[in-house]
Design goal:
Blueprint lengths: L2 H9 L6 H12 L5 H14 L3 H13 L13 E6 L7 H11 L3 E5 L10 H5 L11 H11 L1 E4 L7 H11 L7 H14 L4 E8 L8 H17 L3 E8 L7 E2 L1 H12 L6 H16 L6 H13 L2 H12 L18 E6 L4 E6 L1 H13 L13 E4 L6 E2 L4 E7 L5 H11 E4 L9 E5 L1
Parallel strand pairs: 1-2, 1-4, 2-3, 4-5
Antiparallel strand pairs: 5-13, 6-9, 7-11, 8-10, 8-12, 9-11
Helix pairs in contact: 1-3, 2-4, 2-8, 4-9, 5-11, 5-12, 5-14, 9-10, 12-13, 15-16
Bound molecules: uracil.
The site of uracil has 8 residues, from helix 9.
Length: about 425
């Protein structure tokens, strides 16, 4: 077998066998197939697509590239949750402790920030001392002792995806349905959970901008789950504007903690309760998602999610006092107001642009080797539908380094569209695919 022949066949729109896909993934992971050949293959996939069977074979090859967490010996059903990536999406930080507080074990495999989207691992690492580089034994131990664990991909899980993702990021091959489906599902399956709940983002701030393509992605991932014997449910949710008000690592942890303190009236709480209710339902812990939703809402009101968050933080080496005192989180040196250029309704907040503003301030990585600044980011003071007066602050930038500040300020103002008519709101949840 030769990589060149397989690239040409895919370029010509032919299907590849499981062995051929395995050969490419194995060869690339071992360094025997160079970046330029894998990049050419990925672009051929981007342009010609993969059949469902090829996507399943790619998922299997990715899983085989590393370890698989075996949680079979642990009692009870374990659930995992994954978002396809968004801006201000800190639902994991709310959902994981809440679902665990409801008695369902959560084993959550998370990633770092990608492009303009944030990553749970970077967010959690803004809590002083918090460790996500757990090995397989620690993952199991924490899952049974605490009922919840959030781990990074450090435990040699799907190393092929790590390598291929980095290449996709710089070759314009990220927003490709079979590549996203296999990347997400390989990590979830290798993570060992029995049930998987996916949050598929739709809109300008996610990787899928149309409901129809997001639905297709969701149904492919649900089918992949079935192929690997993991019951999977996908919730299609809006990423037309950032979720919640905070974007940036410690700022998002702060907002998640405020939500866990009992703030139930926000888009963040609404999405967290919806995803959590699906997690409870798919784990068989409640008779319907509606019952799950009410149960979680009650736990949220009673502060039980917050108590579980305290235990998770403590168990993973972080300072648990942050749940009582947000000033223990890193804070940026300066604040810069972004003022409304006109009076009217906020008609749009371009989530992708807000993601970029946060990244330019240092909350993400412009180059692979960049260090994330946990303190910086942006707090939105207005959301879509709010009325503002000219000169009123729309948002506040939390700033340390000022290298890209002028660009960040300009892009933050331009991310807002203000008009005289009130906008028609997008639904937060579009549908559930199961
Ligand atoms: N998240 C992933 O883990 N992989 C993708 O390809 C896209 C989003």
């Amino acid at each position: 077998m030769r990589a060149l022949d397989l690239i040409i066949r895919k370029r010509n729109g032919e299907s590849l066998s499981g062995d051929e896909i395995d050969y490419l993934v194995r060869g690339y992971t071992r360094g025997e197939i160079p970046d330029y050949q894998m990049a050419a293959f990925l672009m051929a996939v981007f342009l010609k697509g993969l059949t469902f069977d090829e996507t399943r074979d790619l998922t299997r090859a990715l899983i085989r590239s590393g370890d698989v967490v075996d949680l079979k010996g642990m009692p009870g059903i374990k659930v995992d949750k994954h978002s396809t990536g968004g801006v201000g999406d800190k639902t994991t930080l709310v959902v994981v402790p809440l679902v665990a507080a409801a008695g369902v074990t959560v084993v959550k495999m998370s990633g770092r920030a990608l492009g303009h989207t944030g990553g749970t691992i970077d967010k959690l690492q803004s809590i002083p001392g918090f460790r996500t580089d757990l090995d397989l034994e620690e993952i199991k131990e924490l899952a049974s002792r605490v009922g919840a664990v959030v781990a990074g991909q450090t435990a040699n899980l799907v190393p092929a995806d790590k390598k291929i993702y980095a290449l996709r990021d710089v070759t314009g091959t990220v927003d490709c349905l079979p590549l996203i489906a296999s990347s997400v599902m390989s990590k979830k399956i290798a993570g060992g959970a029995d049930r998987i709940v996916l949050d598929v983002k739709v809109g300008s701030g996610g990787f899928m901008t149309e409901v129809a393509t997001a639905r297709e992605l969701a149904s492919w991932m649900v089918r992949l789950g079935m192929e690997f014997d993991r019951r999977t449910v996908a919730v299609l949710s809006s990423m037309e504007q950032p979720l919640g008000n905070a974007v940036g690592n410690a700022l998002e942890v702060g907002e998640a903690i405020i939500t866990l303190q009992g703030e139930v009236k926000s888009d963040l709480a609404e999405l967290s309760l919806t995803l959590g209710s699906q997690m409870l339902y798919t784990a068989g812990a409640v008779s319907s998602p509606e019952v799950g939703y009410e149960k979680l809402k009650e736990l949220l009101r009673r502060g039980e999610g917050l108590e579980k968050m305290r235990r998770i933080i403590e168990a993973q080496g972080g300072n648990p006092l942050v749940v009582d005192d947000l000033s223990l989180l890193p804070e940026a040196a300066d604040r810069v107001d972004i003022k409304a250029p006109a009076t009217g309704y906020v008609r749009e907040i371009k989530a992708r642009e807000i993601g970029w503003v946060s990244l330019l301030l240092g909350a993400g990585r412009l180059r692979k080797e960049d260090r994330v600044d946990p303190a910086v980011g942006i707090i939105l003071l207005k959301k879509v539908g709010d009325y503002v007066q000219e000169g009123e602050p729309l948002a506040v930038l939390h700033v340390n380094k000022k290298d890209f500040l002028p660009e960040a300020e300009r892009r933050a103002v331009e991310a807002f569209t203000i008009g005289s008519e009130a906008p028609t709101p997008h639904p937060l949840i579009y549908e559930v695919v199961s």
